[in-house]
Amino acid sequence: MSKYLAIFRIRFVNSLQYRVAALAGMATQFAWGMMEILAFSAFYKVSPASFPMSFSQTVSYIWMQQAFLALFMTWFFEEEIFASITSGSIAYELARPVDLYGRWFCLSAANRLAKAVLRCFPILIIAFIVPDPYRLSLPASRPQFILFLLAAVLSLGVVVAFSMLVYISAFYTLSARGVRVISAVMADFLAGATIPLPFFPQPFRAIAELLPFASMQNMPLRIYSGHISGLDAFRGISLQVFWLITLVLVGKLMMKNALRKVIVQGG
User: Fold this and answer.
1) Gap between the Cα atoms of 129 and 131, Å rounded
2) Closest among 36, 124, 122, 110 to 70, alpha carbons compared
3) In terms of Cα–Cα distance, which of 236, 245, 195 is closest to 216?
4) Could you read off the pLDDT of 243-257 as tens digits, one per residue?
5) What's the confidence (pLDDT) of residue 230?
6) N or C: which end of the chain has fewer CB within 10 A?
7) Angle, nearest 10°, between helix axes 2-15 and 100-129?
8) Long-range contacts: 14-18, Cβ < 8 Å, 24+?
């Protein structure tokens, strides 16, 4: 376990060096979040009672989504992992006395967490001081906030475990570009990144909430905003645990089968 913690720590510290990129990302995320909130505001002014979430809950959902985008974005992948597979340099990875799946998982999780740490605090500070009704609200209680933190950690695990499936698919294809695009678009939509899941039609929403994508950003953001609480929150967290374990087991099985057949050419 200590070697994986070391991999995580080294990648986390290295990723903290990219401060200029973080500043550019913060500006983009704040502008995008504000545009989303203003767009929702126009709809709420027409018929506020017809929406499944209150405007305050929707505002909190969007601000937290932007603040922690690096944790939840399914379209962010580690280019070096794809490059190691397509270039053949994965031979060096296989020579290391470390499980390849565990190494990639730690690298991806550490990079995402470092990006989130660099970007979240300035966005949260601004979100807390903008005027009402566009201001980020605090959770209703301390237990609600603790559940949010737990759901956020599990969400990071589910996102990384899903990303691992995309990385491993590169062993079976000439180019991973198609799998990357399709998986990212599908996951973003079904995770509530484009529109929160409560706004989906009920029959479709009932199915979407059982899929692994709903265990990504949908769950922690709805818990923080207060749209999910109590037993519903515990059920959602339990589903996150289920999908995390399932995706990791599937990923390890796929990795084992892929490495059994992999051929590295060259000298």
Assistant:
1) 6
2) 110
3) 236
4) 999 999 999 999 988
5) 86
6) C
7) 40
8) 14/114, 15/110, 15/111, 15/114, 15/115, 16/114, 16/117, 16/118, 18/115, 18/118
